[in-house]
């Protein structure tokens, strides 16, 4: 999960218990606040999304919008913040899951229960619209249930304040195809509250009839139907339904916004009255079956028997960029924590971490006052303790981790070859020499040519991702007699023996590791402090070699000179 390597269950003050769900923008977890003991839902912005322009602003806008909406049927946002560069929201936990999860398998629902759920959502919508907020993504997945079956509206991630500047460019399609109003499907810029009412009518149709009014094999087909196809009258699909329901749902899904109901409550009451004095059995909700003989419902992206790793491997094998992106996104829908898929998607989409000057600068998360206390103590003892430099390097690396928003995969770098190498424009990684694995060759870090060489400056941490068979090199200028501290910290579960894969080279081109005292910063083998007494003036070099299971993944390197 965010800020933690796979297998970890901590995110700041929260103990994470399980994943509840996720979309293209964020992942939601069930968690317990360590201090209060309260069970909450943690919504955390994906690492691959956080660097995209405007996405962090959109995420913060959701928190801002929901914070001003205090309603019993709108999921409450308790807190918003940033932990080590990753924005998150602390939300009210809804133990009943989503309405979509209730119908994950075909299930029955009676008209009375359908009306009850619709009234809850309608109440939330009318309130939000009165507050000037348009949700724009009303769907089963965004209706949550508590333990008593009470429904609440969630996920205002693409909501818009009616009087605010659009965060979405004109002409783009926002929402989920199965529920989109015609004006949304057309990419219109004047989407208002009546678009939410159309989506609510789609849900009402589903609950009454048993399936969506429009479905198809692809999104374009569904959008075209919303734009131009007449809504199939409910009673023509299910003769057991009252004829009065036809007029209600056809009006609720009218193509022209002005012809629809103008209030959600008015619509639901009309829906309820249509069942008066009509005997009907429960409706069987089946989201994924073929009902027309020609069209098929849009199925979930996850296919039986295909894991995230399967999709990741497909991405590695294809030579087509956009096909690769599609495979990677499918992998991340199944497993948002798949670090290799996250890293490769980030690079395929054009943000190569080796090109630092092309990456947008991130604003580091604020450092709490309490975080500085260990450093203050170290400073007081600086003249008395040789461990001062190690403590300084540790603190420096803690700060440097804030730069890793871009590279915040949980770090399982590995053999990404073929298409990945083409993107980098470099030679294939060196995995063996004359049949001998590089891991078994002494001092191999001095033999392999680096694919990058970058100047390292004091108190200016640099970060990157190291792959198996690659060497990264960092240069720094130092005068004879000075002392330089180099701190290196890996952030992956595949780095636990980096000492063997690092070399220090003096200005004469000779290995000089012996001039540096080596100490672990954190004691986990994924970090190293080199306290170097410089014996020769000039340009020194630090080389890092990637070895699978020892020194691969995201890392940061820092320098302090005394």
Could you walk me through the main structural features you see in this protein, from its secondary elements to its overall organization?
β2 and β3 form a beta hairpin. Helices cover 28% and strands 21% of the residues. It starts with 9 loop residues before the first strand and ends with a strand. The chain has four domains: 1-93, Phosphorylase Kinase, domain 1, CATH 3.30.200.20; 99-285, Transferase(Phosphotransferase) domain 1 (Transferase(Phosphotransferase), domain 1, Orthogonal Bundle), CATH 1.10.510.10; 302-350, no CATH class; 359-561, Jelly Rolls (Sandwich). It has helices at residues 47-50, 55-67, 99-102, 111-130, 182-185, 193-209, 219-228, 234-237, 243-252, 264-273, 308-317, 321-334, 339-348, 373-380, 388-400, 419-424; strands spanning 10-11, 14-22, 26-33, 39-45, 77-83, 86-92, 107-109, 133-134, 143-145, 151-153, 160-161, 283-285, 432-433, 436-437, 452-455, 462-466, 471-478, 483-490, 502-505, 516-519, 527-533, 538-545, 553-561. α4 (111-130) packs antiparallel against α6, α11 (308-317) runs antiparallel to α12 (321-334) and α14 (373-380) runs antiparallel to α15 (388-400). A six-stranded antiparallel β-sheet has the order 1-2-3-4-6-5. The chain is α+β, with helices and mostly antiparallel strands and 562 residues long. The model is unreliable at 1-7, 161-173, 291-304, 350-391 and 399-425 (pLDDT under 50).
